[in-house]
């Protein structure tokens, strides 16, 4: 059961199901009740946490997802595909293209409007969804495609983290931020004392959980988005405890955290307006996610492959780079978060942004399923032909 929950296929299906369910429920008679529930505030305002249910999900629970992202990012940088600069440079350049071009497409569509600050929305790739689509339709593709996609998506997440920390910081409280740094150092020191598998270390785990919560609370009050606390905690956690934590928490993230966030984020009422009345934000995101990502990743990735080609080292074919570019257009989780941060004070545009992320990511999903299936079928046919010739 745990193996199923950890699989990319399960994560992709769970996310899509939760998003569709949230959208459907919001547009039925249950919609007003769901809206009241998500807007309800907790009684914890006395400790400076006057958050609605929806904000507890996006600011609190989603920090768990970013904690796991940071642990995976650290692993890739230290031991994985990104540990070798020669190997990492091509997906790094492709990731930059996959951020810059969608942002430019968004800005081009929204030029002259008051919506241009939403440019980060289409810059994100949903690593869980993209890998899930690849796993479902890519049987037979060479492993290098998955490795390239994983490296690109991890770097994309790193860029998204920087954007959230820098672009969406507001009224920074440096005292709270300094306190968060101190708490983070304590967390790192406790992590070095932790020896997974040994007995009598429960107090260290309890202390780390407490310090982690304090770090999150201080980051929330600093004006930096609270999910950055999850990133920081994941990066300072030693590798072995980090691996154990990732193994234990990933099923909860896939089965609870991400679907709950997708459900709450997609629970918007479809505007009863004509296509011509939708804001430029809608069209900008719908265009930038599937098209901007494809162009950016393909052009930058293909160029980097030519420039940094090394003798004796295999490189991705142009078709494989295009395949990864199509998959990169699936924004979803982080794009929904970016939309929420960009248009938090404009409910109508916020809802249109959610729909745009769902539509743009949906287009990218369908295109990915077709492209990946065709490429996989071609590779399987080639392999079968090779095996048949070898047996003759």
Automatic annotation (TrEMBL):
Topology versus the membrane: Multi-pass membrane protein
Keywords: Antiport, Cell membrane, Ion transport, Membrane, Sodium, Sodium transport, Transmembrane, Transmembrane helix, Transport
Residue ranges that the Swiss-Prot or TrEMBL entry lists as coiled coil: none
Location of the protein in the cell: Cell inner membrane; Cell membrane
Keyword Ion transport included in the entry's annotation: yes
Main location: membrane
Substrates-to-products reaction catalysed: Na(+)(in) + 2 H(+)(out) = Na(+)(out) + 2 H(+)(in)
Transmembrane segments: 53-73, 85-107, 119-138, 147-168, 174-194, 201-218, 224-240, 252-270, 282-304, 316-338, 353-374
Pfam families xref list: Na_H_antiport_1
The keyword Calcium belongs to this UniProt entry's keyword annotation: no
Top-level division of the source organism's lineage: Bacteria
Function according to Swiss-Prot or TrEMBL: Na(+)/H(+) antiporter that extrudes sodium in exchange for external protons.
NCBIfam families: NhaA
Family: Belongs to the NhaA Na(+)/H(+) (TC 2.A.33) antiporter family.
This protein's name: Na(+)/H(+) antiporter NhaA
């Amino acid at each position: 059961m745990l193996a199923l929950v950890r699989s990319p296929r399960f994560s992709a299906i769970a996310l899509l199901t939760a998003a569709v369910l949230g959208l459907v429920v919001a547009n039925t008679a249950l919609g007003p009740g769901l809206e009241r529930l998500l807007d309800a505030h907790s009684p914890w305002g006395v400790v400076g946490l006057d958050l609605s249910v929806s904000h507890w999900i996006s600011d609190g629970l989603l920090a768990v997802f970013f904690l796991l992202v940071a642990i995976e990012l650290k692993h890739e940088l230290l031991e994985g595909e990104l540990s070798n600069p020669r190997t990492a440079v091509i997906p790094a350049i492709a990731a930059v293209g996959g951020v810059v071009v969608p942002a430019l497409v968004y800005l081009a569509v929204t030029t002259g409007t008051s919506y241009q600050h939403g440019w980060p929305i289409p810059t994100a790739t949903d690593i869980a969804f993209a890998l899930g689509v690849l796993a479902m339709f890519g049987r037979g593709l060479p492993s290098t495609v998955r490795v390239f996609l994983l490296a690109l998506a991890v770097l994309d997440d790193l860029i998204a983290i920087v954007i959230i920390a820098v672009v969406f910081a507001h009224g920074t409280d440096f005292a709270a931020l300094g306190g968060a740094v101190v708490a983070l150092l304590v967390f790192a020191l406790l992590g070095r004392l932790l020896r997974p598998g040994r007995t009598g270390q429960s107090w260290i785990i309890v202390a780390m959980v407490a310090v982690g919560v304090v770090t999150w609370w201080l980051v929330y009050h600093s004006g930096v988005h609270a999910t950055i606390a999850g990133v920081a905690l994941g990066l300072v956690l030693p590798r072995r405890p980090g691996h154990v934590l990732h193994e234990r928490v990933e099923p909860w993230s896939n089965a609870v955290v991400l679907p709950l966030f997708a459900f709450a984020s997609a629970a918007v009422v479809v505007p009863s307006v004509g296509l011509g009345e939708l804001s430029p934000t809608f069209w900008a995101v719908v265009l930038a996610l599937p098209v901007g990502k494809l162009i950016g990743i393909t052009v930058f990735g293909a160029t980097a492959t030519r420039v940094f080609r090394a003798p004796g080292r295999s490189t991705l074919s142009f078709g494989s780079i295009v395949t990864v570019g199509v998959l990169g257009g699936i924004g979803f989780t982080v794009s929904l978060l970016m939309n929420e941060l960009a248009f938090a004070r404009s409910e109508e545009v916020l809802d249109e942004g959610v729909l745009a992320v769902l539509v743009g990511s949906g287009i990218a999903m369908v295109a990915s399923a077709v492209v990946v299936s065709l490429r996989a079928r071609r590779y399987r046919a080639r392999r079968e032909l090779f095996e048949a010739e070898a047996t003759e």
